[in-house]
Amino acid sequence: MRQLEYFLAVVDHGGFNRAAKALYIAQPSLSQAIRNLEKELAGPLFHRIGRRVVLTDAGHALIEPARQVIRSVEVAQASVASVRGVLRGSVAIASMPSPAVEPLSGMIEEFTRRHPGVQVVIKDAPVPQAVIDAVRTGVTELGLLSAWDLPVAADVNLFPVERQRFVLIAHPEGPFRPGPPVRWERLAGQRLIVGEPGTGLRRLVEEIRASGVDLTIAVESEHREAFLPLVLRGVGIGVLAEAWRPLAERAGALVLDLDPPASLQLALVTRKGWLSPAATEFHRAATRNL
C-alpha cells in the first residue's frame, strides 16, 4: 500500500522531487520504492525524460485501481472508528467554482458543526465532466456540479440539489440602474466578462448572442473570483450564478436578474457502491431537506 501511495504522489505532484517533499521523504527513497513497485508489476510506470516523468500506458492503467485500494483501506479504518461512535478522518469533495460558494459552504458549515473531527477537502473541478471523473476515479468520494442539463453518467450517482439562476453583475455607476430584470436585448453593445467554453456561463452568453444580441467578450476567465474585481474596475459586466450575489452586493456591485431568466441544475455526485462513514454522513446532511 505504501508503494501505491508513493506512486499516486508522483502522479498528483507531477514529479519525484515535489512528491518527495510532499511525503517528507528523501527523493532516493521514493525513487527506489517506485522501482520496487515497477519490478513487482513487471513493467515501467514512468518514462524518465531528464528531470521530467511521463506516465507509461501501464502507469495510466494503474491510477484508478491504486486510488480504489487506498480509498478502500481508508474506508475500512474509518468504518472501524465509527463503530466506537467517533467520526474521524476526511471527506474529499470535487466542486465547480460557483457551487463551491453556495450551497457547498452551507453544507460544510452544517457538517462540520455536527462532526468537528472530520476534515473536509475541496478539490477544484472546472466543468461537470471533471467532477464526475474525480468521483469515478476515486480522487474524491463526492462531487458537486452545475450544468444546463445534468449529464448522463452510468458509473456514478447524481442527486439533484437545487437550481441556481444567473444574475448580471455590473458597476454601480455603469449602464444599468437598480430595478426590474434586464432584458437580453439591453446587453447589446456591452463588454462582457465570461467563463471558459464548456461552462454554463459561457453557454448562456452564446444563447444571448444567438438571439441576435450583439455583444463583445472583453475577458474570458477560468477564475470566477476574478469577475467581481474586473467588474468593479469597469472592465465590463459579468454574468455569474446567483451564489455570488451576496458577495457582489457586499462589495458594492449592482446585481440584477435577467429576463428571460436562465438557470443551472446543481447535483451532488457520489460513486456507486459503498462510501466511507464521513462521506455517507456528509451526503445525508447535504440531502436531508431535499
TrEMBL record:
Could you tell me which InterPro entries the record lists for this protein?
A: HTH-type_LysR_regulators (IPR050950), LysR_HTH_N (IPR000847), LysR_subst-bd (IPR005119), WH-like_DNA-bd_sf (IPR036388), WH_DNA-bd_sf (IPR036390)
Which parts of the sequence belong to the HTH lysR-type domain?
1-56
A matching Pfam family: LysR_substrate
> Which GO terms fall under molecular function for this chain's record?
DNA binding; DNA-binding transcription factor activity
Q: Does the keyword DNA-binding apply?
A: yes
Please indicate which superkingdom the organism of origin belongs to. Bacteria
Which key words tag this protein in UniProt? Answer: DNA-binding, Transcription, Transcription regulation
Entry GO terms, CC: cytosol
Identify its protein family: Belongs to the LysR transcriptional regulatory family.
PANTHER family recorded for this chain?
HTH-TYPE TRANSCRIPTIONAL REGULATOR YBHD
Write the protein's name: DNA-binding transcriptional LysR family regulator
Organism, as annotated: Thermocatellispora tengchongensis
